[in-house]
Amino acid sequence: MSKVKIKRSLWEKLSLIDDIDFYPYHKGIEISLSLVEGKTLNKSEEEKLEDDLGYFFLSNGSKGIESFYHPGIACIGDGQKTASYSYREILEEGLDCNIGERILEKIFPDLDEGLKIDELFLDCHFSSGELDSCQLSEYKDSKLRPLQLSKAILGKVRDEIREIIKEELGDEHLNDTLLEMEESSISNLEIEGEDEWEFEIVEDDDWEKNY
Amino acid sequence: MGEELLITELSTNVLTDRNEVLCKYQEFFPMIGSPAFAINLKKLYSVVEGGVEKGLVFSHRLIGKFSKFGKTDFSLLIYSEYQMCGTGRRVVDLLLSQRKEAVFIVSETNRISLSLFRSIASLNSTQLGKAFVFKN
Fold first, then answer.
1. CATH code, B5-100
2. Domains of chain B: which residue ranges?
3. Domain ranges of chain A
4. pTM for the whole structure
5. 0.90 surpassed by complex ipTM
6. Closest partner residue to B107 among A27, A62, A90, by Cβ?
7. CA-to-CA distance for B10 and A201, rounded, in angstroms?
8. Tens digits of per-residue pLDDT, A57-84?
9. For A88, nearest residue in chain B (alpha carbons)
10. Who among A61, A62, A71 is closest to B64 (CB)?
């Protein structure tokens, strides 16, 4: 649970909102809103609300609350006293090992004869400890040919990714890691996190002076 | 012949020392001082022209939805007293001549930078949300 400061006029508008998608990056913050059913805002009201939410996010981030460092979705709780924030910590340099090479070496003995390991490329999506999708392709004679994978081989891919995550990130991250691979290289690696924000209301005048 | 332009790497600790100076530029760099700015900062360069420091270049790693455009984004901060004198254009030309891949992300509200990057024929632009991504 993190105590987060919010100016009163913004807090009062949270009753209009179901959830807010925050996407901070080094040059700004992108915000998109889902309004409560039946509520509407005109363009200028929406822009003002997005500006206020941007300052709210950056202000709390600058005070060292870790969940405000990362992109995520805040779902506003009943009575606007709290919000649950599901965020994604995007890892910087991937994993230390060459994950594509390691998985291919593991499954290669089970593949059809005649294939060459350096002509194989793996695309996959792994989340919540499971393999959501996986495609192995052979690139030969300037053509990409998808290969059929048995359930047993898919199971081996999943188990190897699980092992790698346990070794590199720790057992505790097995079920909260999202890993995407394209052409045997990591294209996205995120650890999912959760925080509960408890709003502490600051009067608008004080906010303008101090935040 | 123009004055010599140099881009020299600085320690990123310099940002803390120059925090007061940098705060002046928050209109164009609203994220200066924010965690997202610091976490993703890879390198910092000083822009020196004719022996005078005229600005800074930030290099940030690209994350999430921006990562499909490349690994690194360059941001130019030319100090206000040296703006509108062509230094920014010369810095971009120098970066483009030194690198095979260069990405420049510009907020849609930053009209001065948008017009600079739109004038460079070798850059292609793509709009992503409230930002434009320029890439060679």
1. 3.40.630
2. 5-100
3. 2-90+192-210, 99-191
4. 0.77
5. no
6. A27
7. 41
8. 989 988 889 999 999 999 999 888 999 9
9. B64
10. A71
